[in-house]
Specification:
By secondary structure, this protein is mainly α. Helices cover about 70% and strands about 0% of the residues. The radius of gyration is 23 Å and the shape is globular. The protein starts with a helix and ends in a 6-residue tail after the last helix. One of its GO terms (biological process) is phospholipid biosynthetic process. It comes from Cardiocondyla obscurior. One of its GO terms (molecular function) is phosphotransferase activity, for other substituted phosphate groups. Pfam families: CDP-OH_P_transf.
Length: about 350
Amino acid sequence: MYSSTFINKTCLAFLFLLYFVGMDLLLYFRVQYYDVRPPVNDTRASPYYSPILCDLNPICTVTVKAMTLDHPNHYILSPLASLMDYLLGISRSWTWLTPNAISFSHVVVAVIGARYVTRSSLFHRRVGVVLFQIRAWLDDLDGHVARTRLNVKGERSDVGSIGYLVDGICDALGCIALAVGVFFFLKRNSNHRAGYELLPIRTLSSSSSTSHSSVSSNSFWRSPLYNMLMVGLHLSLTSIAWNRYISVYQDLLESDFSSMISREDLYDRQTTVFRSSSFWAIALAWKIFNFHAMMDYMLLAIFLDRIWEYVRFAWWQLPTILFMLILVSEFHYTYTYVKISSGNDSLRSSLYALPDP
């Protein structure tokens, strides 16, 4: 018979899943009536009436980054950061608090959270998970404050700016802190907790030195150090790939990058790609498998006391998904770049043949 705790967790997870799916559906229909680059004096686009302030509504301003942002950040943490800024007036009144200072503060929170993640007590590890969620919220807050002070609407990456570099470095430090915390937990508990014995740290052999060397080598390949190095490599590759496609799709769909066609024609082509089912599918895939989503899954595994199951899945199956996603994204980006930038009318007709919903 299932315990009440298990039932409560299952119900809570189902409610979150239902909320995320519902918000994805609302975002999908919002995109179908959204001009990512509306032409000047355009009267075709119907106005969007948000029931709440647009800054607090995650589907009000649609951008490439917003469409590829993970579900907890996009639909929970980012609106909460906007709400906090709205209530306290951080962007307007707290001029002494810079976005970079907020970025550095969430590194400190991550280090404290990592210390809790190393504990043997599940309660302490769950405290660490909460602290990492606070770190993620602060990460959203620094971005929101920076964009508000620069009068930038919606989620966007200011690639190459000092703030972009500082935020990236602080995110990397937070990720490293979490990975180190998980490594020390696995190292201390691999021979003591059920499930973690699959990661032997030492295997003794009374046979020959050759046999001992073979066992030691096998122990390393199955050790917490090797496994967490593989997880760290996967997170790094995911971050690099995700940020690349945010950058290139922003340039493709949110800038006047082509001089071969008229601006009006360029806007029409960008909007067509933005609304296409092919781009939606790629954006949704990155929403589920981006860097922050991988961090979310690791934190969920810690909360549910399933760290080793996540580690085994993350350094083999997930990289396979990542490489497939990179391959599809690269093909789609190259194809749409040629179609949008070309001045050939026949190529334009082929662009409009992209799969639509």
